[in-house]
Specification:
Distance between the termini: 11 Å
Order of helices and strands: EHEHE
Largest sheet: 3 strands, antiparallel
Strand order of the largest sheet: 1-3-2
Shape: elongated
Radius of gyration: 13 Å
Strand content: 25-35%
Length: 69
């Protein structure tokens, strides 16, 4: 079984649900395209909702990538 390495990329949420979401999602798409060209595979996008945001004040998306070592 192979070993994997992981890459975590934070994408700031614009904070405006009407306008910010579209900009933020487009930024996420650009990052995914760029990272996949470098051999990274998308694993998950973690949104800034829920406990994490309340506890840490974090309003960033986190994109998780992996690739085999």
């Amino acid at each position: 079984m192979g070993k994997y390495e992981y890459n975590f990329v934070e994408v700031p949420f614009d904070g405006n649900l009407k306008n910010g979401t579209v900009k933020t999602i487009e930024r996420c798409k650009d990052i995914i395209r760029k990272e996949s060209a470098q051999g990274w595979r998308l694993v998950q996008i973690i949104s800034p909702a829920g406990e994490k945001r309340v506890l840490t004040g974090n309003s960033n998306y986190e994109i998780v990538f992996e690739r085999e070592n």
